Structure formats: C-alpha cells, structure tokens
Amino acid sequence: MRAAKGDKLVQHGRVVGQHDQVTEVVEVMGENGNPPYRVRFDDGHEAIMSPGPDCQVRHGDTQHQ
Fold it and tell me: What is the annotated signal peptide range for this record (predicted)?
C-alpha cells in the first residue's frame, strides 16, 4: 500500500451495518509512500495509522476523473 499527502484512506466496516471510515492522509511517515501515515478525520482530530488489509487508498489524482 502506497499513499501520498492528500490521498484518502478508506477503512471498510468489518461488521454488518458499520460504515466505512474515510480519512485524509496529511503526512506520509514511511519511505516511498509506505505506512505509517498521519491521517485527519472528518471531525478534525489526527492519528497515526498503519492500515491493514481492510483498507484501501483513493489517490487524489484519480478522484476527479
């Protein structure tokens, strides 16, 4: 998994009825776009994440197509 600043990190719900959680990558802390990432949630708080297999990256350059 590789991401860049501005990409969206989508963590899919693991339980029926649980919604996906979308965060914005504000800093890539690993080398060559690899985790960990500093992400910002919709409510403004930030956290450091190393995404698992239930996550996907939506790259900023493909969101506007």
Answer: none
Q: Is the dihedral of CA 25, 2, 49, 28 positive or negative?
A: negative
Contact (Cβ atoms closer than 8 angstroms) between residue 11 and residue 21 = yes
CB 54 within 8 A of CB 11: yes
**pTM of this structure:** 0.82
How many other β-carbons are positioned within 10 Å of the β-carbon of residue 39? 23
Question: Any residues with CB less than 8 A from the CB of 13 and at least 6 apart, and which?
Answer: 19, 20, 21
Q: Considering Cα of 10, then 65, then 59, then 42, what sign does the dihedral take?
A: negative
